[in-house]
């Protein structure tokens, strides 16, 4: 598992700056005023820092930008890194500054002279998140990670504020690792084993195998996996930190690889379908974060783990299967498999847990990427209250989400001649029709939202807080949603 950098918070010791190896970081606001740490660096470097701060280059920097000054005279460090950041930065600017430092660190030790700056813990989160690399399958030894030390005026207070954010970073890393992992490694067995290992953190983890799923009547879920040699599983993770109340539920699509099945996908880009378990990955990452920070909430996380393969035993287009709910589905296209996975897991979740609310996450449709690109996940909901809370939490965490419509006209597309419904409608509005399909398996009195993360789970270009590849989109938003709305005291 990839683990975030360990970050230490120490008392300010101005005398230790001259001999510090690696890179020494100072913060200077728009006003160009130097704090005690920066003044010390300025003196040691015979006013090189002040010259930089008065330059046009500093003037042009935006909040959160960082500039390294190499081989400073009078110091042992290989660079002084100047970060443009005021004394009271916004959360987004603080994280951005941390992310810039992660990119500049390049294996060296960092000594960060944060002094009395507000939101030092958010700087540390940005640093941890942008420091992620997925190197499990590189044989060349990775550069040793440098150490990270913040010098702050109140180290205990900052360390206390940073602890729950370190739990967030670890959850996000867990999601990214799962989502980046190739499908020959992250099989359904391997995925379930990684989730079971979280019992060490105090999570309850239960694995439902195929015989149990068959007895429960989860035929639509099982129909997706029947062409694969890997067994289909449902994993139930429970975090009981909140007393006796009914839990909030998270449900994830965990298709470890999506070939499309008999409705086989085009070969170009098919390798990307290793991320088709991204929804399950986010559920796992949130559960990990809740356990690590000992959240005072009851949350269940359920994932349907399955591989969509063509074979002599695979589901055919035209097959009719019965869902756990009892409705029959004509499977027109075996590549519209995510909704079949979720239909049964959503129903099971409601029957077993009677949740106070339910969110499912899925890399469900290419159509949502056509609509929203990689900037926003699509949100579909039967509840204005829940969708507003999700949008607020996502905005606070800088994770894009955009509400999309639902309606009877879209639902009508799912009419089947021979069964209760079919699994696809027309091509137009494909992401909405997929959401309508899911809603048929949601009880009307359960506040529910479906997040289509096909465009945000994994991206080709780096983002503010992640390198190219899996982003972990949603872990921060959902962790905050739970903290702000479902947690006691
Ligand atoms: N896993 C795909 C959706 C997807 C596409 C995710 C690209 C990430 C990137 C999903 O199972 C799928 O194949 N959806 C089809 C549905 C269609 C057959 C109605 C699609 O979007 O083309
Ligand atoms: Mn598919
Ligand atoms: Zn899929």
Write the layout of secondary structure elements.
Elements: E1 7-11, E2 23-28, H1 36-44, H2 48-53, H3 56-60, E3 66-70, E4 79-84, H4 91-105, E5 110-115, H5 120-130, E6 148-152, H6 155-180, H7 188-196, E7 204-208, H8 210-216, H9 219-225, E8 233-240, E9 248-258, H10 278-292, E10 298-308, E11 320-322, E12 328-330, H11 338-353, E13 357-362, H12 367-372, E14 377-381, H13 384-397, E15 401-403, H14 408-411, E16 421-422, H15 430-439, E17 448-452, E18 458-459, E19 469-470, H16 475-485
Parallel strand pairs: 1-6, 2-4, 2-5, 5-6, 9-10, 9-13, 12-16, 13-17, 14-15
Antiparallel strand pairs: 3-4, 7-8, 8-10, 11-12, 14-17, 18-19
Helix pairs in contact: 4-5, 5-6, 6-10, 9-11, 10-16, 11-15, 13-16
The chain binds ligand BES, manganese (II) ion (MN) and zinc ion.
Enzyme class: hydrolase
Binding site for Mn(2+) 2: 253, 258, 276, 337
GO biological process, one term: proteolysis
Task: Give a brief rundown of this model.
The protein is of the alpha/beta class and 489 residues long.
